[in-house]
Amino acid sequence: MIKAHNFPPQYEKIVDLLRGYRAYLVGGAVRDALLNRPIHDLDFALPKDTIPAARLVADQLGGDFFILDSARDTCRIILNAETDQRLVVDFTLFQGKDIEEDLASRDFTITSMAIGLEEEDELVDLFHGARDLEEGLIRATSKSALKDDPVRCLRAVRLAAQLAFRILPETREQIQRNQRQLTEVSPERKRDELFRILAGPNQSAAVGSLQVLGLDSYVLPGEISAHRPGRLRNLETLWTLFLQEHDQERAASWSKGTLIHHLGRYRENIREFLDCEWVPGRSVYQLTFLMSLLIDLFNREGGLKSEQITDCIPLSNQEAAFLLQGIQSSQNWLGYPDGNQKDPALTVHRYFGEFGQAGLAGILISLGENLHEQREKKEQQSWITSLEQARFFLEGYWDRYAEWVDPPSLLDGNDIQQAFQIPPGPEIGTMLATLREEQVRGGLTHKKEALEFLRGHLPLSGRSSS
Description:
Elements: H1 11-17, E1 24-26, H2 28-34, E2 41-46, H3 50-61, E3 64-69, E4 74-80, E5 86-93, H4 99-104, E6 114-116, E7 122-124, H5 129-135, E8 137-138, H6 145-148, H7 151-163, E9 166-167, H8 169-178, H9 187-198, H10 203-213, H11 216-219, H12 228-243, H13 254-263, H14 267-275, E10 277-279, E11 282-283, H15 284-299, H16 306-312, H17 317-332, H18 344-355, H19 358-377, H20 380-398, H21 401-405, H22 413-420, H23 426-440, H24 447-457
Parallel strand pairs: 2-5, 8-9
Antiparallel strand pairs: 1-2, 1-6, 3-4, 4-5, 6-7, 10-11
């Protein structure tokens, strides 16, 4: 019998409401219950009446109800817990005449188990998934499991990395035998599985497995370079240091300790930045790992074009712009811009003016790359230089944002048009940009000063001022 202490607080109420529907808890929640891991999402399989059952739970617990697939009576409710962490609960019909046929149609033994709600939490485990959990194995439920849905090839890699499990040889053979069918899968489904991999943990291990199994070219616009997983490990090291509380042992090496010394004060800022959803369902954390994954493809002869990325990995315009800006900023931020170090505030202003928040991601990626070089070549001075530069940029962004990055506007376009009798056009934008740079230098604080500056520093031949 499985205890419910690691289930969400709403679980017992949901179980009580589903009595009489012959429902089963299935999938990842059962796996995580056996592994004694926290459970954040629930999946229920029912022989019939999925929509009435889901509506009942949503109505009684105050959740939002959605139909995902009306033809298959698949639906979802979203409940908000007291901690503001939402709980996603899915309801599906049996795939087959009973729970046994439903489980037989699933992907891997460790997710082909069920808990019967009518039988006092009885575990249904036809394929010895509990044993495979104990032994740390990823095993396909049937010989046709990966042929039935080739995206499961990618899912095997993700599960193995996240759980630190081993994919059995016969399942690896199935992956290699069926992976060509991934060309027939929609780019959106492959993208979603890729982003689940990039959500971690152990992204570098997953990327290494994608390489070894030959899966990388099916989800990325080119093959990953051989050294890329090793560099991703260094990026994971940075995430561990930034996203978790300080641990003396974790930061014991010289390079890690030096990083904490220089950038530790920005741990909370970095954590909030990486946790932020850039678009619904995809975080800055995931997009930053994708940037690092694609850097080598940009650096190859001819370079990777943005349309090649979006053809392979469907992204919104907002995501694509963030991705490209992050990669570009990561490759030149240490020397940005040449010859302007005498005016550090202006350096920060121009950098974030060009790259925006993607510039933060670029700095973090570059630190991961430099950490790799420091480890490989023991270039300690280079590491210190990059950390000092990073601290300088992060200080400018998070401590002096209103001074250096985005100072308050003293004039707008209408003010300039009225003062200098200039028609609308690109010249006004140039004047505003020049004015903001002068603000960053610390020379202007009032509207009158701004107008005087423009009169004295911009060519306005033949134009009168009011």
